[in-house]
Structures are given as C-alpha cells and as structure tokens.
Amino acid sequence: MSELSVQGFDEGALADLLHEYFGVTADSLRPSATFDDLGLDSLGLMELAVALEDRSGVEMADQLADLTPASTLSEAARVIERAVTEGAGG
C-alpha cells in the first residue's frame, strides 16, 4: 500500500497499514480490536499518524489526536477517512 485512497478508507485499509508498518498479525486485525490489543501505545499512534500523513500527503495530526490506545480499528478508520477526505478538500 503506497498511497492512501481518499475514497473508501476502511478497517481493511487500516489493517493492511498496521500489518505492513507495525507487523501486526492478520488474525489480530478485527474491527473491534483496540490499538492496545495490538500492542500500540500512544507513541505507536504517533508513528501511525506520521505513516498516514506520509502516505496520504495530508496533515492529519489534529484529527487523529482524539485516538487513544483504547480506540478500536473501526473508530480509527472513520476518523482517518474523515481526515483524508477533509484534507483533500472533499
């Protein structure tokens, strides 16, 4: 996954990124999993934000600030999709 699509960012796209960037196993990646479940702490979330910004070309640190280790992949995917869409002028 080299670039984030503005349309259709979902749990699957986030799961792919987490697997590729953090080495999270595929069987752990489900919509109800929290970042804490996956071993990502607040520093890991910052690294995720940087990876997302690099891949999308959209600054989204402010939008992602509400995500915590207790956030689920489903919640995070919605926040990220909104951030990418808004950042692309959508």
Automatic annotation (TrEMBL):
Residues 8-84 form the Carrier domain. It comes from the Bacteria. Keywords: Phosphopantetheine, Phosphoprotein. PROSITE patterns: CARRIER, PHOSPHOPANTETHEINE. The keyword Ribonucleoprotein does not apply. SUPFAM superfamilies: ACP-like. Pfam families: PP-binding (PF00550). This is Acyl carrier protein. It comes from Streptomyces iconiensis.
